[in-house]
Recover the amino acids of this structure.
């Protein structure tokens, strides 16, 4: 029961961190999760969780890296293979060598082999932390892909170097030749084993389908346990489990893309399931990191043998050393490649962005926790508590530095051709939604599919045209949102007036007021609007208890449909009047767009679009429209995650989709 409560609290913390981030978006979610982890560890009734390094790697790192390998574009990784390998291998070994000697000189109480071990565990960047940073900062695509590839590879090189440095500290024996050969065997063997195992597991799934086992749940279960099996088998054989799961994820993606018969349902379930798993695991990584910090800090802080200011200065100096080494290495490579005519002249700002993006994460702390307490001769491991303290400090300092510096630098990046990027994003968004709707077509819904596709094609044609780029912009977007809000207010005011005068059925009025509330919430992401909508709904519910029904709600179906049509015509007319009254030269384009939308609805109502015989068609069409809207949201999120669009552009596109959804609700 205690374990269940602990897990439940951890999941609540993850949800709470995202709620807090909603109010303080300038603070990244990982830092909020770390802070909440610290708070819940300090509280007497809080969560107390010991970190088991082996369990941490298999439970968190294995599935996360497998998913990264499964989703990361392979063509882009291959085109950036040189910088990725130089960062994942060359920079790691340079950091171990230079930073190892530097740490030993800075803190002589840490023996040289132990200093190498500390440098090794600090050398790899953290894939989870890099992903968290990329979510809130618009990085050029080449930088983002390089960072992702580096994070996928350098965990293995850093941990292997850490393993040999640790062995040298514990046993006092080290052989460079043996270490080099072992590294090649561990790395290459892990890649090959992971690829082979993933291929065989995929073929097992194909065999099960041929035997008639088409149960999506079973195949999804096989996919979920794949990274755990690959990691455990690889580690048991003495190979790199991290590289094995990365290779396994890549082979999974290759085999999936080449398969001729992929179940659409399986793809939907797989993406939805992995999104939930990754969301939870990413959050748990940082929460668990926060839970460990108080114990790590207290052991040093309460030890009178250490001077607090001095040990904090160690963290700043070592972090600065890591950033300087990273900058020099990247600058040297970029400059050399440019002089050899292998790439364009390096941009200094891009080098700074890549340097500051080298954040450390929970992998570093988990590795540090795996340091044994005693050496082979039975003596205590030298300065183990101090090494843990420095590791935790460097993680926090790199996260905080990146959180502060990256948005400042990235926001100053020149966004050349912003209009073109936005229009292309809109075109891609509608193109993908058309494909999604077409994939649902069958004999029963063919007419509804063609109708929705025709509507979507109008948008696609509009945003595919090169001469219509100026229509889309933040000013137009803000104007349209403000005018739609005024139109909704006019509709709500008219319904309330008719209800008070007893000219409309109470049940029908309440229904349309709820529809207006939904439209307002969809259009506005502001908490204030959502609260007011909720309060209005509660107020109407209470009012109905004391209000006598003015009109009998038991109308025949035809009469109720006519009453609904009449009410909708009146509200649309009031909305058009309100929009016309505030229209001027500046907002004419947005006003006319909204007026056109209301006039279209009135035209549908006059033409009998709400006839009962058309209910089945309208229901199918609405389902397809909602699917198209969801596909548009998925496309925007995908473009944002891959670095194709900036955060501000993504926000504008989402607001645009909200407006489209609001139109659907009004037509509904």
């Amino acid at each position: 029961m205690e374990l269940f409560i602990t897990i439940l609290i951890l999941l609540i913390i993850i949800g709470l961190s995202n709620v807090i981030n909603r109010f303080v978006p300038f603070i990244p979610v990982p830092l909020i999760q770390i802070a909440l982890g610290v708070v819940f560890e300090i509280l007497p009734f809080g969560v107390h969780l010991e970190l088991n390094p082996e369990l941490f790697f298999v439970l968190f790192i294995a599935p996360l890296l497998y998913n990264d390998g499964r989703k990361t574009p392979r063509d882009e990784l291959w085109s950036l293979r040189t910088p990725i390998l130089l960062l994942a291998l060359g920079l790691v070994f340079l950091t171990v060598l230079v930073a190892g000697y530097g740490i030993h000189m800075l803190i002589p109480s840490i023996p040289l082999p132990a200093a190498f071990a500390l440098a090794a565990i600090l050398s790899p960047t953290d894939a989870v932390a890099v992903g968290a940073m990329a979510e809130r900062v618009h990085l050029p695509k080449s930088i983002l892909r390089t960072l992702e590839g580096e994070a996928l590879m350098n965990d293995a090189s850093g941990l292997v170097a850490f393993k040999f440095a640790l062995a040298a500290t514990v046993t006092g024996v080290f052989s460079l030749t043996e270490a080099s050969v072992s590294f090649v065997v561990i790395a290459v063997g892990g890649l090959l084993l992971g690829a082979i195992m993933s291929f065989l597991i995929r073929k097992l799934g194909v065999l099960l389908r041929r035997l008639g086992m088409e149960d999506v749940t079973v195949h999804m279960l096989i996919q979920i346990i794949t990274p755990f099996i690959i990691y455990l088998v690889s580690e048991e054989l003495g190979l790199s489990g991290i590289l094995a799961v990365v290779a396994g994820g890549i082979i999974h993606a290759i085999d999936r893309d080449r398969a001729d018969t992929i179940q659409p349902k399986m793809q939907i379930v797989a993406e939805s399931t992995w999104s939930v798993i990754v969301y939870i695991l990413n959050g748990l990584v940082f929460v668990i990191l926060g839970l460990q910090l108080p114990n790590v800090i207290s052991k040093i802080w309460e030890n009178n043998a250490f001077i607090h200011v001095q040990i904090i200065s160690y963290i700043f100096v070592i972090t600065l050393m890591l950033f300087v080494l990273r900058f020099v290495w990247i600058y040297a490579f970029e400059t050399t490649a440019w002089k050899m005519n292998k790439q364009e002249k390096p941009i200094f700002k891009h080098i700074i962005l890549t340097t500051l993006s080298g954040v450390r994460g929970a992998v570093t702390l988990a590795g540090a926790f795996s340091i044994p307490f005693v050496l082979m001769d039975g003596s205590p491991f030298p300065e183990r508590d101090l090494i843990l303290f420095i590791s935790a400090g460097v993680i926090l300092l790199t996260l905080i530095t990146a959180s502060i510096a990256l948005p400042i630098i990235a926001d100053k990046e020149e966004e050349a051709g912003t209009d073109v990027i936005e229009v292309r994003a809109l075109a891609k968004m509608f193109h993908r939604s058309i494909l999604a709707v077409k994939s649902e077509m069958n004999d029963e819904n063919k007419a509804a599919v063609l109708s929705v596709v025709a509507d979507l094609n109008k948008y696609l044609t509009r945003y595919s045209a090169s001469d219509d780029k100026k229509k889309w912009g933040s000013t137009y977007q803000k104007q349209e949102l403000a005018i739609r809000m005024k139109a909704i207010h006019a509709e709500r005011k008219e319904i309330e007036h008719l209800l008070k005068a007893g000219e409309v059925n109470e049940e029908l009025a309440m229904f349309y007021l709820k529809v207006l509330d939904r439209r307002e919430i969809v259009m506005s992401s502001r908490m204030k609007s959502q609260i007011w909508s909720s309060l209005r709904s509660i107020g109407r519910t209470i009012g109905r208890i004391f209000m006598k029904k003015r009109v009998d709600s038991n109308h025949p179906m035809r009469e109720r449909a006519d009453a609904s049509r009449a009410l909708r015509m009146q509200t649309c007319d009031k909305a058009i009047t309100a929009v016309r009254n505030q229209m001027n030269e500046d907002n004419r384009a947005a006003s006319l767009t909204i007026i056109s939308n209301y006039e279209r609805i009135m035209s549908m109502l006059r033409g009998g679009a709400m006839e009962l015989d058309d209910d089945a068609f309208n229901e199918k069409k609405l389902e397809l429209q909602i699917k198209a809207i969801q596909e548009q949201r998925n496309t925007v999120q995908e473009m944002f995650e891959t670095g194709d669009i900036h955060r501000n552009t993504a926000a504008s596109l989402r607001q645009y989709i909200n407006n489209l959804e609001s139109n659907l609700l009004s037509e509904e």
In short: The longest helix spans residues 264-301. The chain has two domains: 16-411, 418-667.
